[in-house]
Specification:
The chain is of the alpha/beta class. About 45% of the residues lie in helices and about 15% in strands. The protein has 9 helices and 9 strands.
């Protein structure tokens, strides 16, 4: 059997832009965490506890709590300053993702990009829709593994509406037969695996905030630089549903040790090197090619 630990990422309320005085938190909402075979859960829990004890024992001591009852939230650990300045913090994320893969598991996430605007929205409807789609993806993953799965969520995230949604998805007209029970609720400060899912959800949320709004979240470029490729390699059956009605900038992302560059639609020069990775954009490739040809013809012999 598979055990799935997920926490939510992003924000379910409206999003206008990063500069909006009210609705500026995140352009995406979803659930993220990891999937492990049942026999690997105990060992992974011990690994995560030791990871905290080795790197964060001083913080737990200041909080006057034993390490097994103390929690460091991912949003407080993986800040934009800490991943820039402290190699040890970056490597905690690397080791966490690597351990999931080492134990025959994978990172899982499912999210949805939100419409831009401050008009009234239905946050609960967004949460339940995303959770339902996430469960169906996990059901397909369990079918692929010829297994069943149990879903574990943080007690703070497992609201009544979400639990009811999970039951409908489990027993509805198109049931998810591999889910053995509605989600289990746990207190995150007492469950090491739930804390690990929170860390992964933080990384996923910030990588995707940058991908969906790279100009607004330019300060999140280092999350993509350090964790983007690692998350993609470690994940399976995962996606964020992008909206087709949102205009995007043309984003050029250099390889590991450079920052992202946001290029406006007016492209004066196109430079191609082997180290550049191009993110999807709403630019017509044919028009770009035509510009290159025109530029070559205009250059003096």
């Amino acid at each position: 059997m598979l055990f799935v630990y997920v926490d939510d990422f992003g924000h379910s309320g409206p999003y206008v832009s990063r500069l909006d005085p009210r609705h500026n938190t995140s352009p995406v909402y979803g659930f993220a965490g990891f999937v492990l075979p049942a026999e690997e859960v105990r060992g992974f829990s011990s690994f995560f506890l030791q990871l905290k004890e080795h790197n964060l024992a001083g913080d737990a001591l200041k909080a006057q709590k034993p390490i097994h009852r103390w929690e460091k939230k991912g949003t407080n650990l993986f800040t934009k300053n800490s991943i820039q300045r402290y190699r040890a913090v970056r490597e905690m994320g690397f080791r966490l993702l690597g351990e999931v893969q080492k134990r025959r598991g994978f990172v899982f996430y499912h999210g949805r990009e939100k419409a831009r605007g401050d008009e009234a929205r239905n946050p609960v409807g967004l949460q339940t829709t995303v959770l339902s789609h996430a469960i169906r993806r996990l059901d397909r993953a369990a079918t692929h593994a010829n297994s069943r799965f149990a879903l574990v969520m943080d007690q703070c995230s497992a609201k009544l509406d979400l639990l009811e949604c999970a039951q409908k998805t489990m027993f509805g007209s198109s049931p998810c037969r591999n889910l053995v029970s509605p989600p289990f609720e746990v207190e995150s400060h007492l469950d090491q695996c739930m804390q690990a899912a929170d860390w992964i959800a933080t990384l996923v949320g910030r990588v995707w905030a940058w991908q969906l709004d790279p100009e607004g979240f330019a300060e999140y470029a280092d999350y993509e630089r350090y964790y983007g490729d690692r998350l993609r390699r470690a994940s399976a059956f995962s996606t964020v549903e992008k909206r087709s009605d949102i205009h995007r900038k043309f984003v050029v992302r250099p390889s590991a040790m450079s920052r992202a560059i946001v290029v406006t639609e007016r492209i004066e020069t196109v430079v191609e090197t082997q180290t550049i990775i191009v993110q999807p954009a709403n630019l017509d490739s044919q028009s770009m090619t035509a510009r290159r040809h025109r530029r070559r013809r205009e250059e003096p012999c």
